[in-house]
Amino acid sequence: MGRALNNLDGLLQMPSGCGEQNMIILAPNIYILQYLEGTAQLTPTIRQTATGYLQSGYQGQLNYRHSDGSYSTFGYDASNTWLTTFVMRSFGLARRFIFIDPSVLQSAQDWLISKQGSDGCFMQEGTLYHIDMKGGVGDNVTMTGYVVASLLEMGVLVTDPVITNALSCLRPVVGKLGNTYTT
What we know:
The protein is about 50% helix and about 0% strand. The chain is built from seven helices and no strands. The protein has helices spanning about 1-5, 20-40, 45-60, 80-95, 100-115, 140-155, 160-170. The protein starts with a helix and ends in a 13-residue tail after the last helix.
């Protein structure tokens, strides 16, 4: 493990591919940058390489952005709730290292909020082709938890009606969950 931690910069990659593939490569670059910065191992050379990759991945991901702020795998297919949440969350983290247009973040957030049902739950829309990407998010409960966590990370207040409505969707199932990831 020590060798891997000492050579994290070797794990940095240039994002490419469709909307899903691009994000699969872009997101780890953000976490590597955070770790190297947090442990005082981030050199100017590594920062320059990593931020270049982030900028390229950011620009590439905009090709899969719909006019309503949502994202899809190929850009011409249906908007995807999970992918839009992942992009918003990742771009929110990346803005610490590169410029992310605030309107790009806001439109993704607005689109997600518009997908909240009257019961407070968020439904998965669109097709995610790379199933491993979504981890344990596979139903309305996990989708709602994922969206809520992401919105909170973006700075939406816990007292915001979107969050309180989503929590009303989640409260009845707490204690009845059999899946550790969902819990």
